[in-house]
Every structure is written in C-alpha cells, then in structure tokens.
Amino acid sequence: MTSHHGKGALHLAMVALLAAILGACAQESSPNEDLEDGRRPYSELYEAFSGLTDRGWTLDVIIESRPTGTTAALPIIALRSPVEGDAAWFLSGIHGEEPAGPNALFTVLDDIALLGERYPVVLMPLLNPQGYVRNWRYLNTPVYSESVEAQSVGDSSHLLVDPAAPGTARADAASSPEAAAITAYVLQTMSTYPPRYSIDLHEDNMLQRGYVYSQGELGAADPLAREAVDALKSSGIPLQLDGETRFGEQIENGIIGPVTDSSIDELMSASEVVVEGTIASGPAAATVLVFETPSAAASFDNRVTAHVELLRRLIDKIGTESTPESRPE
Ligand SMILES: [Zn+2]
C-alpha cells in the first residue's frame, strides 16, 4: 500500500516536471511568434536542419545555450556531411537580429544535402538561437552599445594572435561559454573536415548598401567574392562598390580584403592560433567570405532571395571544383 502510494506520488511529480518543461518551451517560443518580420520559427528551422541526419549526416550539439535572462536552453548545432575531407563550411545566425541567412539556408537545404553527397560540408546554420528567438544581436544585450561589453557567439579573441604581442592571444579566456564551445568545435572538427571554404551569412541594419568581406588568402581578388558581389547585384540588392565602411575599411568593387576583427571569420582564415598559451595550426581556409546585406534598404523577402542566390551560385562553384584529396581523378 505504501509503495503503491509512493509510485503515485512519483508519477505526479513526473507529470509536474513534464508540464514545467512544456511550459518553458512554450514561453521560449513565444518571443519568436511576436517577430513579424517574416522569419520562420526557430522550431521549424531546427527540425529542417536536424533532418539532414535522415540523409546520412551527423548532428553535433556544440553546446546547450542558456544565457542570463532566458528560461530554457536551446542547442547550438552543427551538421557534418557523410564524406570527410577538405570541406565547405557554412555559418549563419551569429547575430540574432539578422534572420535572412538562416532562412536562406532553410530554402537551399536540399542543394546543401546534394553538395554533401560529393563534397565534404560542415553546416553551422543558427549559431545564436537565443538571439534569433529574441531578436537580440548578442547573448547578453540586444544591440551594440558602448556601455556594455557585448558577448558575440563568434568571438575568437582568446585564440587569435595578438599583433602587439606575438605568441600570445588577444584575450585570456573566451567571452562566453558559447564562444568557447563554438571555437573549440572549429579547432576540433578541422582535423577531419579542414575548411577550404568558409561562408558566413550576415546582415547589417545600419547599412543602405551591402558588401562582401573576403578574409582568405586571395583577399579582395578571390573570384568567389566577385561571384558573390554579382549575385547580390542580380538580386537587386544595393551595393557599396568603393569608398570605406563605417569602420574605416577600404572597399574595392564591393569587396573588403582581410580585416583584424577577432571574429570567427578571422579564425577560419588564421594559419596560426594560440591554444592555452601555445601556438598551434589554425583552420587556414583559403576562401573566407562574409556577406552583409543591408536590412535598412531591402525587405526580408528580398534579402532571403539574395542569400539564396548567393548560396546556389557558390554551391554550384564548389561542387564543380575538383580537389586531389576528396575527388581523385
Ligand atoms: Zn552580423
């Protein structure tokens, strides 16, 4: 009788726990429903991306992200294609108020799956899910401000060499658990999927005209950067072809060459990194592109269409490239 009673209490406790979890999930998804800019709900993106496992891909949970002020953890995921080797890496959603990239990846997911059948791919489709559901740029603050030290999930300053003090990193530690986990994942995964291409999809709501960063070894002369500018042009995205960015960076035909910004893109291009005080080999991707579409000057649908066009063109170029490592003749 006593034990039966005990089981009943346990059952009730489990029901209460389940209700609490479901309640937390409902609360978590509610901010997303309020964002009426056209972006797909987080759950729909997550389901689609993780569905690549049905096609032989491996799903990695990099970290369960639960920054201060959030009610339930959301996983930051990566997906690896069935084939290993020199790879194309796709990154998106680093800044939560830039929804075009993750939504474009949703649209071209089948093209990425097909590319992954013949060329190694690592997909990191939504690197700041908590930012996405809250429309927050960073983990700890919605927008850039001079009074708050912003925590970007892509911050790589703890691994990048300090130009003023060679042999040491720019920061002692990662600025957040998310940045620590994401950058560690890059360094770990580059042994089996060395990045040949790194494509990072961004937007900028301060911009009236877009441009492309090319952080790889060819810099502004990278033919894929030119292809990207052409794709933006043909999608009707206004472009800034010359002059300087508001950060004082030189623009050449819509392209900005390598910059030192402690971003994950600088990490992807770095040939050297500092890991726990010791110099080690970096990812050294040959082509590193970062797209910036102007959210002040183009509609959400237009920006998604532009990112889709970019991705389709690059997937096509990458898929027809032959490398001795992955595609012996
Ligand atoms: Zn951004």
What's the architecture in CATH terms?
3-Layer(aba) Sandwich
The domain tally reads 1
Level-1 CATH class name: Alpha Beta
Tally of helical runs = 9
Q: Percent range for helical residues? A: 25-40%
Q: How are helices and strands ordered from N to C?
A: HHEEEHHEHHEEHEEEHEEEH
Strand tally is: 12
Largest sheet: 8 strands, mixed
Bound molecules: zinc ion
Helix-strand makeup class? alpha/beta
Q: How does the overall form come out from the CA principal axes?
A: globular
Explain this structure.
It contains 9 helices and 12 strands. The protein is an alpha/beta fold. It has a single domain, classed as Zn peptidases (Aminopeptidase). The longest helix is centred in the first third of the chain and has 33 residues, at 2-34. The protein is globular and about 45 Å long. Residues 1-10 and 12-31 have low confidence and may be disordered. The structure holds zinc ion.
Write a brief structural summary:
By secondary structure, the protein is α/β, with parallel strands linked by helices.
Topology (SSEs and partners):
Layout lengths: L1 H33 L7 H9 L7 E8 L8 E7 L6 E6 L7 H8 L1 H10 L2 E4 L4 H6 L42 H13 L5 E10 L6 E4 L8 H12 L7 E3 L5 E3 L2 E2 L7 H6 L2 E4 L2 E4 L5 E8 L5 H21 L9
Parallel strand pairs: 3-4, 3-5, 5-12, 6-9
Antiparallel strand pairs: 1-2, 2-4, 6-12, 7-8, 10-11
Bound molecules: zinc ion (ZN).
